[in-house]
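Our platform keeps sequence and structure together, in a single record for each protein. Such a record has a labelled line for the sequence and another for the backbone structure tokens. The tokens are whole numbers drawn from a learned vocabulary of local backbone shapes. The remainder of this section carries one protein's record, kept here as part of the documentation:
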Amino acid sequence: MLEDNVVQALTISISELDRRLLVSGLVGWRTANGDIDDAISAENWGAIDRAQNDRASHANTIALIFNKYTDTTTEQGAHA
């Protein structure tokens, strides 16, 4: 069992295309977070909505890549 504040590295082998998509997704997700902050400061509701949609899209890309390369078993919470 891990103790609090202990970080373990996660190592997975992924294809070059998926690596590029993962990097792009992470950069886009971080950028969208900044865009959300800026839009909130400006009280621009349309920009907030667009940035939230962008962030969700990037998060979904990241999740799909990780799910593609990892095994999920029922014991880990997946539906059988």
